[in-house]
Amino acid sequence: MNLGLYFLSELVGTAMLLLLGGGVVANVALTKTKGFAGGFLLVNFGWGLAVFAGVIVSAYSGAQLNPAVSVALLVKGTIHADQFFIAILAQLLGAIIGAVLTWLAYKQHFDDEPDPANKLGVFSTGPAIRSYAWNLITEIIATFVLVFVILGFGDYGDAKVGVPGGLGGLSALPVALLVVGIGASLGGPTGYAINPARDLGPRIAHAILPIKGKGSSDWGYAWVPVVGPLIGGVLAALASNVFLSLS
Asked: Which partner for 26 in 113, 122, 123, 139 could form a disulfide, CB atoms 3.0-4.6 Å apart?
């Protein structure tokens, strides 16, 4: 395995994911855009299609694109420790790059947006009702669903997530639809980060970019969409192993 190409695959895939995912939020949340006030369901579909695109361009590394998926694959023994740490670094950097590109694409709309919360919402998630314990539980449950189903593709199907070349083409479509479904069903309480890099990388970008009137990056909440998905990913891997042992 070429670890440099492995890194690049995760970097490019996660950047594509965040560019298109952040882009649909910007289109809905920022004033004067063509999609302004398009609604949460549009955001769900946009994120699903963003996942589809990210998976397609990251087939070499198995299209992980998410530390919660990577930690699950590490627990299952599908990837080794060196692959895990390379993937995590690539995902975080790719998420930052994707967020920066989203800002550049919507620069004038960020400048004209009067509400700092709408600007932050393009980059990172936030709870509808702030309660760290319950927000954490929501993220654990939603990420468990994501990772458990994705692992099922590999355990019982033909799509081998985490294996070079294992996800691509039509194999990306079920993952995209899964993300749409999770958003529509479980996204209301927290905005469904379900991916530590997806939230942390853009939050870092929000903190360092010269965004006019951006306000706080809400670091007090930032641990929830990191810790919750990682716990959900580990639990999904353990549950997947139990199912395999019984089959």
From this structure: 122
What is the C-alpha R_g of the chain? 17
Dist. CA 119–CA 111, nearest whole Å: 9
CATH topology of domain 3-246: Glycerol uptake facilitator protein (1.20.1080)
Provide the residue-wise pLDDT of the chain in tens; the chain has 247 residues: 899 999 999 999 999 999 999 999 999 999 999 999 999 999 999 999 999 999 999 989 999 999 999 999 999 999 999 999 999 999 999 999 999 999 999 999 999 999 999 999 999 999 999 999 999 999 999 999 999 999 987 766 555 666 665 555 557 899 999 999 999 999 999 999 999 999 999 999 999 999 999 999 999 999 999 999 999 999 999 999 998 888 7
Domain boundaries, the chain: 3-246
